[in-house]
Amino acid sequence: MKTMNKKTILIASITLVVGLLAGWLIFGGNKSNSHEDHEHVKTEINGETVWTCSMHPQIRQNEPGDCPICGMDLIPLDDDQNADIDPDAISMSPTAMQLASVSTAIVGKTNPVKQVRLNGKVQFDERLVYSQSSHIPGRIEKLSVNFTGEFVSRGQTIAYIYSPELVTAQEELFEAQKIAESQPQLFTSAKEKLKNWKLSDKQIENILTSEKKQVEFPIQADVSGYVTSKMINLGDYVRKGETIYEITNLSKVWILFDVYESDINWIKKGDKVDFTIASFPGESFTGSITWLDPVINPKTRVAKARVEFNNSNGKLKPEMFASGVVETKLSNKSKAIVVPKTAIMWTGKRSVAYVKTNSDQGVNFIMREVSLGSALGDSYVIESGLMEGEEIAVNGTFSIDAAAQLAGKPSMMSPEGGQVMTGHNHGDIVVGVSESKEEEEVKPKKDISQHLSINKQAKETLQPLYDSYLKWKDALTNDNFAEAQKMATNLKSALDKINMSLFTGDAHNVWMEYQGSLNNSLEHVQHFSDIEQLRKSFQTVSSTIIEMTNKFTPLSKTIYVQHCPMADNNKGADWLSTEKEIRNPYFGSSMLTCGEITKEIK
Fold this sequence. Notes:
By secondary structure, the protein is α+β, with helices and mostly antiparallel strands. Residues 1-42, 80-84 and 419-449 have low confidence and may be disordered. It is elongated and about 130 Å long. The longest helix is centred in the first third of the chain and has 37 residues, at 2-38. Strands 5, 7, 22, 23, 24, 25 and 26 form a 7-stranded antiparallel sheet that branches. It folds into 5 domains: 39-79, no CATH class; 90-112 and 334-434, conserved putative lor/sdh protein from methanococcus maripaludis s2 fold (Beta Barrel), CATH 2.40.420.20; 115-125 and 250-329, Beta Barrel (Elongation Factor Tu (Ef-tu), domain 3); 127-248, CATH 2.40.50.100; 456-601, Four Helix Bundle (Hemerythrin (Met), subunit A) (Up-down Bundle).
């Protein structure tokens, strides 16, 4: 019996060992193969392996474990396989480029052409405005034109006047007529006196023929046009030469466009302007600049550019709004390197682009610092840093730059590279933080080439964020420092209350980046002591909010992206508004209407 028990135990032991071995071969072997398939090369910092999450690359830990966001197993951070080619190169597979919406273009030279957008109004031609005066002193007895806007023709009787002086002058004329044969000079002088009051020879002859004094005398229009101002009423007494009507001929009008100080260098006399009138959608007009204001308005910081327009049909009416476009070429450059704005990233101090290179291992991108010239609408002139024929990234540049930061390579925010990523605890989330000594104030923009869908709850949780942002904008517009600081603090509080778990999938990664950028911009708003500091913070917040709005489209109504070309030391800055009317938060009352709408987000 004991022998049977020993045999049974032996068989069970052998079976257990075989089972464990088989399990190791099946599961352990697969796990090993899985690692081989991913071909992870461990990144070590200070002798320790850095562990990250494949779904949330911002996670950095010095030991393996689970991702605090999604619960997936952490994996060793990949080292760059192309470090032996160029230590600063960022390699990307075709799949990674597609997922990051990275596209490239060949750098070429062209004739730089800038489109300058102008806003203005239709106005009277000042040379065709006439003051209709009374040539006879007296009391207004009748008015043939009783309201402004009425059209009058030259020679039309517009009023009747009673003049005691004219009555006396007619009596003198009758007396001089009696002695005309003996004293013809006296008779001639009596008629000339009436002519001085603009009575015609025919009127004088009628008076002499009728031998009756005329009590009421007509006042006739000297020009044709519209009455734009009525300065008298029935019964008023007027002096000789006093203006009673203002008459304007609208056969020609001016369109006066506002030219911002930053655009004056691009506008010159003779430039062709294509413009539209808000009252006539779908119809365009053309004119040339005949005059440019030599003086800038000290309050609005704009100069006036005048376009003369033949308005014989009376279609354009004074005070109509006009929007024009001037296409102008750089006078000192026949050929220049021009690249899309999406290819350039800048922090306010530096501008960089990513140059694409190819090797046996695949595609690489290397950061290149560039010097920007003039802005040409959606593109920049490159003064230095790029050469004709080079291939650069024109979309997805922020994804490339983010990869460079994660890999500790030179990036827009850290030109020297070599950032050490350590675990830093924000609540229950461990995220990577930089230990670089200097920290830029402006965060890089995210790639907004593709929209991401978020659920209804996620959109609702963002609403307090937008409410505080728009109130912050209004306070800056009104130059109200206390209210602006309060709204900026409210925005930071609203940001802290957002439930990040409502953002799922790719939207979660994107939201984490937006949240980090906003936190950095709002970190010290409650300690600011002047409104200019708040405006600088508002600029960086606006950049992130606009990108987030493009990416998530969380609002139920149309919102407008507005741009001021003179903000940020003439580099330009954007903001969001629910109204079409321009109210500039970067300058407030000093330049309240400076700006234009560049985009509508439905």
